[in-house]
Amino acid sequence: MWDLDALLPIDYAIPPQFIELAPREVYTNFCNLLSRDVYSEGDSQCLYDYIQSRADEMSPEFLAMLNLWLADELKHYEALRRTYHCIAGVSFTEMDRQFATRFHEIEPIEMVLTDEFTILVTLMFDEIGSVYSYRRDLWEYYRHFGTAIQKIGHHLVKDEGMHFNNAAELLLTKHTHRLGEVKELLEQISALEKSLQKYHKTFFLDHAQEQYRFPSHFNSVLIRFILARLGLRIQPDRSELQELWQWVPTGYQLVPIFR
After folding, report:
1. What's the helix, strand, coil split of the chain in %, to 5?
2. What global pTM score does this model have?
3. What is the CA radius of gyration of the chain?
């Protein structure tokens, strides 16, 4: 549990020296990155509403977990709104306007929403991807803009890791009879994400919009990590996991951010 208002009040002003001292490419890239991350966290409400419309198909334990998950994701949304506002100067009114125009397309990802089991496996895939995505962002961007902003990045990493573990525990307690399906399903999810070409604003598979930021084997290592968490194989070694967030393409000092 962490208190957003205590850490980053809505009227927080970032000390000017952090903007001035940050490398120009870091500042520009971070603004572009936040212009995506803010809204994809807010898309959690769309996914939640869709799953709630099918609540009679879901277990009470899953629905209880989902409520806690949404509260965290909406806190992330607000935390990133405040971060974006104080770094890029974008007004909250403008962010509200932009978010209101988003069109959420469930149909392209219907395969991962078949039932509670597929949703939990996809949640594990999505959240562990976010853990390593935010670890990269923390190292490349958040750490340059002061303690408060850096702590936001740390909380994002920890929360996504907790969501990953919560989904794992539910799979291990409610769906043990289907664990043999997990590997094939994860490979299907990875193939779907790669085929989407773009993010469809439904929270899940939002890394489709930034696959270029990670090594080509990113998903395959994540799949092995998930299977290890479920007791289905040996975990990847530490160096493989570090590469997921430390990799930079040849010829760059920072992974480029494309709008």
Report:
1. 75, 0, 25
2. 0.95
3. 18
The helix (run of H) or strand (run of E) holding residue 220 is helix 218-229
Handedness of CA 236, 220, 114, 50 (dihedral sign): positive
- Quote the distance between the C-alpha of residue 105 and its chain's center: 18
Measured between alpha carbons, how far is 153 from 141 in angstroms, rounded to an integer? 9
**pLDDT tier for residue 258 given thresholds of 50, 70 and 90:** low
Spacing of C-alpha 122 from chain mean position: 12
What tens digit of pLDDT does each residue of 233-246 get? 999 999 999 999 99
Q: Could you list the beta-strand ranges (E) of 129-199.
A: none
Structure tokens at 204: 């899940």
- In this prediction, residue 33 carries a pLDDT of 94
**Six-digit token string for 76:** 């992330």
Q: Tell which residue, 127, 123, 139, has the closest CA to residue 242.
A: 139
Q: Is 195 helix (H, G, I), strand (E, B) or coil?
A: helix
Closest CA to 178 of 128, 234, 114: 114
85's CB contacts (< 8 A; 6+ apart) are 91, 92, 95
Interatomic CA distance for residues 92 and 85, integer angstroms: 7
Residue 259 has pLDDT above 70, yes or no: no
